[in-house]
Amino acid sequence: MSSKSSPRELTGKKKRTKHDHEALRFIELAENGTDRATIDASEGRTILHIAVPRNSGGYFGHVLAKLEPSIDMKDNLGLTLLQLSILLGKYAAMQKLIDFGADIHIHSLYGGPIHAAVALDDEIALEALMRKSVNVDDIIDGGITPLACAAYNGSVTSMKTLLQAGANVQISKPIGKAIVANLTSSESMVQILLDSGANADAIDEVMFEDPPIIAAAKRKQMNVVQLLLSSSTPIEGVDWSLNGIIAYTESVTFKAEDDVHTAARVTALRERMFNALENINYLLADICCKALRNDVSTTEWDRLRNLNLLYLSHSFHGQKPVLSSDAIVNMALVYQKQDKGKEVMCLKAALALNPQNERAESLLRTALTDLQEDTNTEAKMKDDQAGKQQKTATHSAAVPPATSPHRGCCSRARRRSRSLLISTADELLNLLDDNPFPAAANAAAAADPATPA
Hints:
- The protein is mostly helical.
- It has 3 domains: about 1-105, Serine Threonine Protein Phosphatase 5, Tetratricopeptide repeat (Alpha Horseshoe), CATH 1.25.40.20; about 135-295, Ankyrin repeat-containing domain (Serine Threonine Protein Phosphatase 5, Tetratricopeptide repeat, Alpha Horseshoe); about 295-380 and about 420-453, no CATH class.
- It contains 22 helices and no strands.
- The protein has helices spanning about 5-10, 20-30, 45-55, 60-65, 80-85, 90-100, 115-120, 125-130, 145-155, 155-165, 175-180, 185-195, 210-220, 220-230, 240-250, 250-280, 280-290, 300-315, 325-335, 340-355, 360-395, 440-445.
- Helix 13 packs antiparallel against helix 14 (about 220-230).
- The relative contact order is 0.07.
């Protein structure tokens, strides 16, 4: 539907799409003076919460004008309209909310709007908030600042934007976080932070961090160690050179102590992440997950990441899964015939809560095999289609355009590809489609409650 559609244009249409009908329903509810606090009993969202994901700005503005006092309302999980629009990349709706005066500092389940924009490395959303003089040092429960989000996420552009806007480089002790992220951008971020006056010795004890230079040495980030050498306070008894620091972190004594420290860190951060999910603080849960990236195996970290994605994506629909491995397996069974991507996400999430869940492990192996077969089939179809198109193009070149039987038909897509696996936070929007999380999934979990893992 065009973003310019008005109520008059919608009602005058001879053929209406599903989204047109939804638009008219929202407009009717708004114009009939529906109680602004009305919550959809089945999903726990206001009229505007339902409208945001389904529209890119057209009729949403009309509904918003009618329900303007509701723009800062939260749904049953505490999600605001502005944050929902940012998380889903609905920029037209986001801009209308900002223009109508939405509070850009209200904290929600994913921090403030600026935290969501930075965590997703969303330059459009961040710039829109900057134009309204958003607080770049906004701190949420857990002590997380936008700069910390940028460091953990490897968002160099967002980091530069925040620092240029005057972000306090000392508050969140960002150097250690940039190193822990262990991304290709870590070196660039450390250099930017040092140039901005960040303390090279600052340690975030709440996140059980090592001294930044030691953290870099453990991860063999040689260039980062070199950057920090002159800015860090020497450790007594350690040869304060690149080779000396690397040798220190490879010593038997250091490794024995570090193994104990790392095990305690993993246990504490996992527990904090689970508690954050239970308490609907999804930004803190995400930060704890990213902090564990290099302290657990790739498989375990992928499972923890999918657990976070499961909770955040369900929040788009006003839903909160039960924090139980067995209950989440039951949810996976609902998706088994509907969406393999969501089934895999659920099974990985179940194993994050209980790695010994043999049922989840068995179902995951089967689901991944099915996914691979689907991927191979899809790839073969694309190859076949490309071959047909090449053959058609060759044939069409030899036939006069006016008489070519293939003119115009071979350019149409015959099959819309779909993403089967969730790989990054940037793909969250793929989780909101024409087949959203059905109520049956939560019903299945509730019907067979299990003891939380």
